[in-house]
Design brief:
CATH superfamily of the domain at 54-205: Vaccinia Virus protein VP39
Structural class: alpha/beta
Oligomer: single chain
Helix content: 25-40%
Strand order of the largest sheet: 5-4-3-6-7-8-9
CATH topology of the domain at 54-205: Rossmann fold
CATH class of the domain at 54-205: Alpha Beta
Shape: globular
CATH architecture of the domain at 54-205: 3-Layer(aba) Sandwich
Number of strands: 9
Radius of gyration: 16 Å
Order of helices and strands: HHEEHEHEHEEHEEE
Distance between the termini: 38 Å
Length: about 220
């Protein structure tokens, strides 16, 4: 598929997501336009990069459906200059979307459990020129305390419950978006206040599991 054909399919997908109400904020829409999703899928699946479906990326992991990424990114309310923690780097697509939004004064730190994926994603991010993304290898259920607290936390794999380390690493007034459940998961938008946590559901989806000390057992 040619670059022009990919660009046309990207625009068709974005228009569909806008019309259906999944993309609503201009900064999120523009991030979807700027990030080449085809760079984040396996080479043999490039023709499907702008189909609204999840795609396998190896090691039993997937790149989420664009609709899901749109819903989660909008719920997260990312802003320029923010520091965002992502749990589950995968191929790096969600991190790139967020990096476009937070800009050069912001930072996206993404934790990936699978070393092979983390290594490939570091290389991909570097090749694409993103200097505001850091990919680290580790147990995502523990967060990344070294750079806490965070303005936003997004979890791209399903947890059995909201991990306490992530709650602790979120700033007051910060927002976390996380899928919770075993088979069919509910995505929760959680806002941390001085009085505690406010939580609401944004719908039901399916994700690979969060493996770790505060996640599911391996």
């Amino acid at each position: 598929m040619t670059d022009d054909m990919l660009a046309e399919k990207k625009e068709m997908l974005i228009k569909h997501l806008v019309k259906a109400g999944h993309l609503r904020t201009e900064r999120v829409i523009q991030a979807f336009r700027r990030v080449p999703r085809e760079a984040f899928v396996p080479e043999h699946l490039i023709d499907y990069a702008y189909v609204d479906e999840p795609l396998p990326i190896g090691e039993g992991q997937t790149i989420s459906q664009p609709l899901t990424i749109a819903d989660m990114t909008e719920a997260l309310e990312p802003r320029p200059g923010q520091k965002i923690l992502e749990i589950g780097a995968g191929s790096g697509y969600q991190a790139a979307i967020l990096a476009e939004i937070v800009g050069s004064k912001g930072k996206v730190i993404s934790v990936e459990r699978v070393e092979k994926l983390a290594k490939e994603t570091r290389q991909r991010i570097a090749q694409l020129g993103y200097k505001n993304i850091k990919i680290v290898t580790g147990d995502g259920s523990l967060g990344y305390a070294r750079k806490a607290p965070y303005d936003r936390i997004i979890v791209t794999c399903a947890a059995p419950f909201v991990p306490e380390p992530l709650k602790e690493q979120l700033k007051i007034s910060g927002v976390m978006v996380i899928p919770v459940g075993s088979w069919l998961q509910q995505i929760f938008k959680i806002r941390k206040t001085a009085a505690g946590f406010e939580q609401k559901s944004i719908g039901f989806y399916q994700f690979v599991p969060l493996i770790g000390e505060h996640g599911f057992n391996p």
